[in-house]
């Protein structure tokens, strides 16, 4: 199976877009509040 090759894959730009989305949607805060009352999780 062959995978598509990306010639102009800009990882710093992708990271900025992901961070912007997480901040706009309060993803980290939602992840904390969704575990409220459960045992701590350590990764």
Set down the secondary structure blueprint.
Elements: H1 11-25, H2 27-34
Give the integer mean of the pLDDT values: 89
Strand residue percentage? under 5%
Percent in helix: 40-55%
User: What profile does the largest beta sheet have?
Assistant: none
Shape: elongated
| Discrete helix count | 2
Low-confidence stretches: none
Helix/strand/pairing class, anyone? Answer: mainly alpha
- Could you give the order of the helices and strands? HH
User: Rounded to an integer, what's the Rg over CA atoms?
Assistant: 16 Å
Q: Give the beta-strand count.
A: 0
- Kindly report how far apart the N and C termini lie: 33 Å
Briefly, what is this?
This protein has 43 residues and is an all-alpha fold.
Question: What report would you give on this structure?
Answer:
The chain is mostly helical. The protein is 53% helix and 0% strand. It has helices at 11-25, 27-34. The chain is elongated, with a radius of gyration of 16 Å. The N and C termini lie far apart (33 Å). The mean pLDDT is 89.
């Amino acid at each position: 199976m062959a995978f598509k090759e990306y010639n102009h894959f800009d990882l710093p730009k992708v990271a900025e877009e992901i961070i912007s989305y997480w901040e706009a949607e309060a993803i980290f805060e939602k992840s904390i509040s969704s575990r409220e009352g459960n045992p701590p999780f350590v990764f």
